[in-house]
Amino acid sequence: MGAPNELNLAALAKYSNDFLREVEANVEEGEWVKMCMQCGVCAGSCPFGPDWEHSPQKIFMMIRAGKRQEVLTSDSMWMCTSCYNCVVRCPRKLPITQIMHGLATYAHRLGLAPKMQPTYQWSLQFWDNCTRTGRVNELKLTLGLYFKEGFVAGVKKAWALRGIGFGLLRAKRLNPFELIRGHECKDKAGIHRMLKKAQEIEARRLKIPQFKTEG
Amino acid sequence: MAKKEYAFYPGCSSQLRGSASNYLTSVNSMCEALDIKMTQIPDWNCCGASIGYAGSGELSRHVLNARNFALAETHLPGQDVVATCAACWLGARETKEKLDASSQLMAETNEALKEAGLRYQAKVGVRHMVEVLIEDIGYEGMAQPIVKPLEGVRIAGYVGCQTNRPFGIAGESFENPMYLDKLVETLGAEPLVKYEQKVTCCGGALAFSEPEKSQKQIKDIVESAYDHKADLIVTPCPLCQANVEIYQSEINKRHGTKLDMPVAYYSQLMAVAYGATPKAAGLDGHVIQPKKLQDIAVKVVPKK
Amino acid sequence: MADLKTAAYVCGGCGIAERLDTGQLALIAEREGKMNLVRRHPFLCSAEGVAQIQGDIDAEGVTHVAIAACSRRAKTEAFQFPAVAVSRANLREGVIWVRPANDEAREATQEMAGDYVRMACAELKNMKLPSGHAETGRNRRVLVVGGGVSGMTAALEAARAGYAALIVEKGAALGGWASKLHRRTPFREPFHDPVDTGVAGLIEAIEAEPRIKVHLNTTLTQTGGAPGRFSVRLTNASGVSWVEDAGAIVQATGFTPYDASRLTEFSYGSSPNIVDQAGLEELARAAGGRALRRPSDGGSVKKVVFVQCAGQRDDSGRHLPFCSGHCCGTSIKQAMYFKDADPAVNTVVIYTDLRTPGSGEDFYRSAQAKGVTFTKGTVTGVEANDRQCRVSFRDLILAEDAVIADADIVVLATGQVPNSGVDIEQPERQDANGVQPISILNLSYRQGKDLPQLRHGFSDSHFICFPYETRRTGIYTAGPVRRPMDIAQATEDATGAALKAIQAIENAQLGRAAHPRSGDLSYPIVRLEGCTQCKRCTVECPFGAIDEDERTYPVFNESRCRRCGTCMGACPVRVISFENYSVDTVGAQIKAVEIPDESEAKPRILVLACENDAYPALDMAAMQRRDYSAFVRVIPVRCLGSVNAIWVTDALNGGWDGIMLMGCKHGDDYQCHFVKGSELASVRMSKIDDTLKQLALESERVATYEVAITDLARVPQLIDDYIKVIERIGLSPMKGFA
User: Fold this and answer.
1) I need a labelling partner for C197 at 20 to 30 A (CA). Which of A85, B42, B229, C162 fits?
2) Residue ranges of chain B whose pLDDT lies below 70
3) Do A100 and A31 sit in the same domain of this protein?
4) Which residues of A touch C374 (CB under 8 A)?
5) Which among A113, A124, A134 has CB closest to B46?
6) Do A88 and A155 share a domain, yes or no?
7) What is the rounded CA–CA span in Å between residue C467 and residue C496?
């Protein structure tokens, strides 16, 4: 056989178990992907269904078809609202929500997640916010989200949503005091050590070379 | 009857000065009337919520929840951990089930917890406040302290997602859970016979990152309540409450609608029915005023 | 037998006495019905009421009993008097339950009841107690055609029930297709892995069973006779021929795989690496549990592609239009041959709808757990080079054209072509493989050599209601000859067919009918001296029960007969009858009804209703108290096929205003218990227009309907709508002439 041309190489990877095995090894609940029977109930049950480029059903098929790059760089998993509607309706009982989160996390760890995806940004920010002190600081979190595209954009956004902000202030559900000294756990240091350790253990178990540990 | 005692896990949004602080206020009033003692888990931490996944990975999430369990086991032995927030409950319960099922995850979790000087012994039970009410108190028990039946109030029981799926309340269906309606009825108010958006997602945490898509969901949820002539919406979830209530003004701007539907917690309904003041029922914590509840709360009822 | 002594009993129970004047009804039975004995009883089906009837039979010598009470379908056990002829007037379901209980309706309701009493008396006087056919066959052996899993199972089941069995197998060994398989799909818990075919065990059991005899290399060269007395000439490969007797026959002749070389689009034949499912089994058997190798060069296999529905479910008209049912499970099993030997082998099943009924779903899940990839798609082409195959397909989930260029083996899931012998309606027709079939049974029946077929060459049997019945009484089909199926289904099928064969043997011995009038002792009696040799009965009998002698007179084979009466309906000279069901038993009822004078403006509509579907539907409508017009008089018939044109002519001449014929759905999805009866009736009635013209009557006066047993809401509506039609065209001008 002669040297395979590029097209052949692309074809070789298709409809092999390679990517499926990678997903099974590295993605939370990834071993369930092969059990999808392609009924499409998940796609029809998703509140943001019409907004995904690829429904969970398609994502599962893409994994089985070996479309690694297209799956991991996809914006689709980031559209999950964690409503778990697909999970309770799936006739094969796939934990679809968890798999979507797992795929998103894996894409992030490989540095393949779409950088400008708003929910991707928001997810990282949330984790950062809640682990800093052990508890979420809602004000900082909100402001952080508004100002993520720079100061001017943040002021504009905050101004546009001022009605909501003032409403919450009046209802005592948003407190400027949080900016200065918000809630935090007493054993912040212990929480930080514990999470660092958890990330180390997980990186060790998953053996992902590009694994970027937080801390 | 012995006082019922639980290890309370209020969660980040329900703490003082949080976006659901009035939820906490009303839960306290409700529990007092029902003779339930809730003791906060000392130094509890965030569960990681559903949205923290990209940064957390799996194990860190379990470790965060297991820390709360370990603290509860140490300081409040024998008490179930009770969450009021849907996401806290879901996250905690998922951790518990996963660790119970996997000795490897359990070992890894405890290896990490050791760094904080803690150990999780898998003794603790995890429950939602609603489970405590239905299973430990019962509808009859919940009816006992009523002094002001919520007569003439039509209430849309918006169950939402995470108290309903994937775990849900035992004996309820995912597609049409009835417990909020039964609760509404128990309190003397009128539940909606039909409410198409009962378990529709409000967009959850994506209300921040995907506001337009989420607000479309919220619009449906509120409009359906209007369609069935509800006076207010009741929900068991702090994120549902916040999203469905506070974005109505934005939706009005965006779509030219005139939405002005109050959204309350079940605990507020109960607190009011049990005779709490508007403040003690957390009725001062609303952007859209729950007028009918406030009217009942200020009414003076002659002592029995 | 003693003289005819008739008795009528009018029941007053279930509200009949409150709603009807039973005294008047008793008077009708006595004066008009001319019953020798008439009694009223308040609760006739009670032990005491039944005892009274029995007492009259015993003490008074009553030979004929008319019971005016509930429907003939109700209280059948209480009103069972085997020693006398019994007719029934349906006053409950037929009258009071379908009529409003008010004063306004009372008169018409009473008239209705009166007519039903007249009809029951008229019918009774024309009935005889059926005596059963004396010349019964008594052979108790089951002859099984085909020695595959279906045939072996049928023989074993019959033997285990105490009946001798004889297997006739064309090939040199028992086992059939199953013996060519490496493994079979699992049929027991936990449905996870392919299992042993079980063929060796079956053959051992056959050999150990003294009741079973086997003839290999043998075919049936002539089959004649009837249930209980089949006579079969067998001929073996050396040309030796002899005759064996049998009581019943099970045909389990299986299938031939659809010829994959007809699938030019999949390049079958261009490379040994493209195989059909049978070809893969051969490779697997050759590998004997070791990893399968690439056929072209013995190289190792890394990827296998399964093409489902290859030449099946085809709408182009070139291949099989149907689904063969087993092939999804078979491909799953074959993918496991590879996965179980080496999990690193990639196996891709390309399907449009994965059909794994029953516990096949567990097997499917097991394959998924083993890493078999299932892809929803339609394959557009397969090409082969020296070593590998290229499969092009449309991925229906990802909505894109895709190619698998590196398949080592491609397996085509082709379907099953039934081995059902000659199509007796088109004897020259080739089967789906382009082969001219040779006869399997070589029946010496007048209607043809093999079993009638329904669609796609499969033997005719009702898919849901009576799967093993064929249109030849005493001959039952089992396995893929009657519909596509897998081994597990064929095994179940064979068991059912064996039991049907046994039932046929037992019924034949007692001179009784088999399905669907099981136990009926009546049989067609022909008055040959009146016969005009028109051959309508021999041609139209749905069951091929009637042969012809050398002068083309009909020769009735009673044990082959299902007692539908289609011959009776066909006969232009009315020489065919049953002792308890004849042109006269119905004709007398039609004549007994009192036709009101035109001035009374009360039309009379005759409803001839199939006893299997339409009549029960009417009864059920009554149970739900659905009202319909009091102008109808319903007569149950065994099958619409038994309706003789003379009844229609007589009714029209007698001043009836309209006739409704209610029979079953016919066509490919027929519901007729006698398969062809309702169809024949509708053909005959389409020709009734001539009669109507002769009488100068409107064509609306005779209407034919397809009615299902579930049509209980529709039937009353049909009646009321028809009344409107009659009101529109006016009363019959024939009144008063009779």
Assistant:
1) C162
2) 1-2, 302-304
3) yes
4) 37-38, 64
5) A134
6) no
7) 9
User: What are C578's strand-pairing partners?
Assistant: C581
C558-595 burial by CB neighbour count: b if 16+ within 10 A, else e? bbbbbbbbbbbbbbeebbbbbbbbbbbbbbbbbbbbeb
Q: What is the pLDDT of residue B69?
A: 98
Band (pLDDT 50/70/90 cuts) for residue C462 is confident
Domains of chain C plus CATH, in order, are 1-129 (3.40.50), 142-257+418-509 (3.50.50.60), 263-411 (3.50.50.60), 595-738 (3.40.50)
A128 touches chain B (CB under 8 A): yes
CATH number for the domain spanning A33: value is 1.10.1060.10
Partners of C702 in beta bridges: C659
In a domain, A150, yes or no: yes
Give the closest residue to C153 by CA, choosing from C505, C492, C500.
C492
Specify whether the CB–CB gap between C504 and C347 falls below 8 A. Answer: no
- Would you call B56 and A124 a contact, using CB atoms and an 8 Å cutoff? no
How far is the alpha carbon of C327 from chain A, nearest alpha carbon, in Å?
18
Asked if A15 lies within 8 A of C387 by C-beta distance, the reply is no
Which of A76, A109, A142 is where one domain is finished? A109
Count of structural domains, chain A: 2
Residues in chain B within 8 Å Cβ distance of A158: none
In a domain, B11, yes or no: yes
Tokens describing residue B132: 């405590």
Write the ipTM: 0.95
| B184 shares a domain with B109 | no
Q: Residue A191 is part of which domain span? A: 118-206
Residue B209 to residue A138, Cβ atoms within 8 A:
no
Strands C230-236 and C218-224: antiparallel
Domain check: are B197 and B77 in the same one?
Answer: no
Which phi and psi (to 5°) does residue C571 adopt? Answer: -70, 115
Chain B residue whose CA is closest to A165: B246
Instruction: State the amino acid at position B84 in one-letter form.
Output: T
Alpha-carbon distance of B175 to B272, in angstroms, equals 29
Burial class (CB in 10 A: 0-12, 13-18, 19+), C534: middle
pLDDT digits (tens, 9 = 90+) for A160-192: 777 777 777 778 787 777 777 778 999 999 999
Domain boundaries, position B276: 139-298
Task: Write the CB contacts of C701 (distance below 8 Å, at least 6 apart in sequence).
Answer: C652, C657, C658, C659, C692, C726, C729, C732
Q: What total of structural domains would you count in chain B?
A: 2
State pLDDT tens for residues C483-522.
999 999 999 999 999 999 999 999 999 999 998 998 899 9
Cβ of B249 within 8 Å of Cβ of A164? The answer is yes
B206–A136 C-beta distance less than 8 A: no
Q: Are residues B173 and B205 in the same domain?
A: yes
Q: Which of residues 51-90 of A touch B (CB under 8 A)?
A: 51, 79, 81-85, 87-89
**End-of-domain residue from the set B128, B161, B194:** B128
Report pTM.
0.90
